[in-house]
Specification:
Subcellular location: Membrane
Distance between the termini: 8 Å
Strand order of the largest sheet: 1-2
Number of helices: 29
Structural class: mainly alpha
Largest sheet: 2 strands, antiparallel
Helix content: 55-70%
InterPro entries: TMC (IPR038900), TMC_dom (IPR012496)
Protein name: Transmembrane channel-like protein
GO molecular function: mechanosensitive monoatomic ion channel activity
Strand content: under 5%
Radius of gyration: 38 Å
Pfam family, one: TMC
Shape: globular
Length: about 850
């Protein structure tokens, strides 16, 4: 009886066991290759043989195409028809190809298609891999070509198509496959068994049959002692290596909490914590470099401090001034001479700072350390390495994210292939199930997402709403930036007035320095709420688009605020530090950056307490609602980028600022993690954020790191250092420290004049700096273009695959119509009654 066949290529009921192997073409084309090989050397008898076979087929039934199928299709059709009886009622009835029942002749043609044989029949798979094992055996032994055999000894294609693949034939093929597996080497046998598209039970049975029917293995008593020792060493080394890899995997930071967040809240919230983890590694690298080459040498050889050093009162933890001013934390503490242990031991540690950078009584050159050169080189090299890491991370992230991802195929892989059967721990199983469930929800939301087509009036209305929202955001950002500009100018004038008069309340004056960081942090806390209100007005259909728009608006605010602050520090304070009573303006700027970093962290804690925890309690106890606040990804990520920019700006003035940033990020991770798990809920509309991490790395590289690098470079190349503190005192610019070292090196050894010329051309000339930056940008551009080209090619290939599927549907429909036209009226009546 005829039966319906589903031709929907995107149907979700397709199982993995129905998929054909990748190299099935070799099995189905085996007779074609044989005929092609015989065609070049055949005689007249071959043509007569084929003609006779063709006449026999026409005499049997002109419409019966079953004889054109490969051996075993009749048996497989019967088995497949029984297997699909229960599935007939659930197929998609909306497909036009499924509206009618196909004839038996059409069904035989369909069953002979390669895509409907291999993968559904275990016998076909065994036959395929029997041919493979034969090929592997033939590679190791020479055999004559088929053209060298007489025609009577060649394999004939007579009877092909009319054989019936019975169970006995399948068993014989299986026995032959076991035979061939026994004759292979151990490595080839294992690879062949692994590649077979059979279930684990079938593979286990084949392996056991191969072992039982094979030769008895040599007992351990017959193995030489040297071989046994070699095997034990190899096994022990392999187990040690696997144990080491498992130990390294267990050392991954925050592995279990990240899985828990991913399972409950999806990839959007997970991207925030992954980005925080990335920033932690960047600051750890900066801390290692500055601590090893700046802080540690200076701590071992401390300079002589002036009399009347201020004592610790506790306020320094907030302001960063007072007691901390005369420590290795700030720029002004570092000396401007070459450190040498022998010179320090001679005079009892009375270090003297001279303008030439070297003490006159230091005759010994052993264990010398040029602190100005080390300070300049450490900052420059650390920024250069950070730039390389950022560019590499961004390029790699572009390659992972911007690719063609078919949601249907990802959904199938996630449902069928995402479970890790090595996981046996109950908590790990629960985490994995939650993670897979959340990812499936995101993929289903992406698959079911429909783009609504709006009318002209609706489009005009939405454009007006978007324009109004952006106008509100830009106007509020401009107003806040102007407020920060004038307030910073007011604070600068207050410092000028207080420097002219004697300090009456030094603690109060020191606490007043927190006013500017408090105002800036308050604006950064409140203005994103206005941005969220504007986004509520716009009513975006896609949650991911809403997140990206919020990131853009928060980025506009943060960049504007940092631009005003950099002008305040490098344009007002550094231009004339004496009018505000500061002899070491670098230390003052470092203290400002420390205050901004600390106050920003305090306001983040307050927002977590009042904005998430208390709002949850108010919603549950007062409003009697179960709704919890949703984690604001855009605002929290931009706060991380803002804090990291402050850390990069301050590493020149505060070498220990990366350590402060590390402590802040560690506390922030655990606080945010606890708050998200207790006070927040998952987004009501699940969405998959495939490119969020790439966007974060890009924002960290270009607006953040590039801006900080420009400010640091401008400070080192253009601004005049303080004349009474720091490693660059008595120099016109910080850059001259490297130039003087090269000149002294050339003076001591004239053969190194090439190094001096290379320094003047490569370092002093900013052209090569711009060339290096241009090369990085060109590499990023070309990589993005290559990825974009790959995306277009993949899109074209996917379109071609869809068109080929439509072609197959068209050909099958035409075949059915031709068959119906050539039927007799009696046959048509019989087919209608059978339906």
């Amino acid at each position: 009886m005829a039966q319906r066949v589903n031709f929907d290529l995107d149907h979700l009921l397709i199982e993995s066991e129905l998929e054909s192997p990748v190299d099935e073409e070799g099995v189905h084309d085996s007779f074609s290759r044989l005929i092609a090989e015989q065609r070049d050397h055949r005689g007249a008898s071959d043509a007569v043989e084929l003609q006779q076979l063709q006449r026999q087929l026409h005499e049997e039934d002109p419409y019966d195409v079953a004889s054109l199928s490969s051996p075993g299709h009749v048996f497989r059709d019967r088995r497949q028809g029984q297997r699909n009886v229960g599935r007939e009622e659930d197929v998609n009835l909306g497909d036009p190809l499924l509206g009618e029942r196909w004839s038996s002749a059409t069904m035989r043609v369909l069953s002979s298609m390669p895509s409907r044989t291999i993968g559904r029949s275990r016998g076909a798979i065994i036959s395929q891999y029997y041919n493979r094992t034969m090929q592997l055996r033939r590679r190791r032994q020479s055999r004559p070509a088929i053209r060298d055999f007489p025609h009577s000894a060649r394999p004939s294609i007579r009877g092909y198509g009319i054989e019936v693949d019975t169970t006995d034939a399948e068993v014989s093929k299986r026995d032959r496959l076991v035979n061939n597996l026994q004759n292979l080497s151990v490595g080839d046998r294992i690879r062949m068994l692994r590649a077979m598209p059979l279930n684990l039970t079938e593979k286990r049975n084949l392996r056991q049959s191969t072992l039982h029917q094979g030769k008895n293995p040599i007992s351990a008593s017959h193995i030489p002692c040297c071989s046994q020792l070699k095997y034990y060493i190899i096994i022990g080394a392999r187990q040690s290596w696997y144990s080491w890899l498992s130990f390294l995997h267990s050392l991954q930071l925050w592995q279990v909490p990240l899985k828990r967040v991913s399972g409950r809240f999806g990839t959007g919230v997970l991207s925030y914590f992954l980005f925080l983890k990335t920033l932690l590694f960047f600051n750890f690298f900066l801390f290692l470099v500055t601590g090893a080459f700046l802080v540690l040498p200076q701590a071992i050889h401390p300079p002589v401090l002036p009399a009347g050093r201020r004592s610790f009162v506790g306020l320094e933890l907030l302001t960063g001034a007072g007691y901390f001013s005369d420590t290795v934390m700030y720029y002004g503490y570092y000396c401007n001479y070459t450190l040498s242990s022998s010179c320090r031991d001679e005079d009892g540690g009375q270090n003297v700072s001279l303008s030439n950078g070297t003490r006159p009584d230091c005759t010994s050159k052993r264990l010398s350390y040029n602190m100005p050169l080390a300070y300049f080189s450490t900052i420059g090299v650390s920024f250069f390495i950070t730039c390389i890491i950022l560019v590499y991370s961004m390029s790699k992230s572009f390659g992972r994210s911007f690719r063609i991802d078919n949601s249907h195929s990802i959904l199938a892989m996630k449902v069928l292939c995402s479970w890790d059967f090595k996981v046996i721990k109950k908590s790990s199983v629960k985490l994995m199930s939650e993670n897979i469930c959340t990812q499936v929800k995101e993929l289903l939301a992406e698959v079911n997402h429909k783009h609504v087509k709006n009318t002209g009036c609706q489009k005009l209305w939405r454009m007006m709403v978007h324009g109004l929202a952006w106008a509100i955001c830009i106007a509020s950002t401009t107003a806040c930036v102007l407020a920060i500009y004038y307030f910073s100018d007011h604070m600068h004038r207050n410092l000028q007035r207080s420097s002219r008069s004697a300090p009456q309340q030094p603690l109060l004056d020191e606490a007043s320095l927190l006013a500017l960081p408090v105002v800036v942090s308050l604006i950064n806390l409140l203005l994103p709420g206005l941005f969220n209100l504007a986004a509520w007005m716009e009513d975006y259909d896609s949650p991911s688009v809403r997140t990206y728009v919020a990131i853009g608006r928060n980025l506009m605010l943060k960049v504007s605020v940092l631009g005003v602050l950099c002008y305040h520090w490098l344009g007002r304070v550094a231009a004339d530090p004496k009018i505000i009573g500061q002899e070491c303006w670098e230390s003052f700027v470092g203290q400002e950056l420390y205050r901004f970093l600390l106050v920003e962290f305090i306001f983040t804690l307050l927002d977590t307490l009042f904005g998430e925890f208390l709002w949850r309690l108010f919603s549950e106890k007062v409003l009697k609602r179960r709704r919890k606040p949703v984690f604001d990804i855009a605002r929290n990520v931009l706060e991380l980028i803002y804090g990291q920019t402050l850390a990069w700006l301050g590493v020149l003035f505060t070498p220990l600022l990366p350590a402060v940033q590390i402590c802040k990020l560690l506390l922030l991770f655990y606080i945010k993690m606890s708050s998200v798990m207790m006070n927040c809920q998952a987004p009501r509309k699940p969405y998959r954020v495939s490119q969020m991490t790439t966007v974060f790395i890009t924002l960290l590289c270009f607006p953040s790191f590039l801006g900080a690098s420009v400010c640091v470079t401008y400070t080192m190349w253009s601004l005049t250092p303080s004349s009474s503190c720091g490693p660059f005192r008595k120099l016109k610019t910080m850059f001259q420290a490297g130039k003087r070292w090269v000149e002294a090196l050339e003076k001591d050894n004239p053969n190194l004049s090439v190094l001096a010329r290379a320094h003047s051309y490569l370092v002093e000339n900013p052209f090569f700096l711009f060339v290096g930056a241009g090369i990085f940008l060109v590499v990023i551009y070309f990589h993005s273009q290559v990825v974009d080209g790959q995306r277009k090619i993949i899109a074209l290939l996917q379109e071609q695959i869809e068109n080929e599927g439509e072609d197959k549907k068209f050909l099958i429909t035409r075949l059915q119509s031709i068959h119906e036209r050539r039927k007799t009226p009696a046959q048509r009546l019989t087919s209608q009654e059978s339906r």
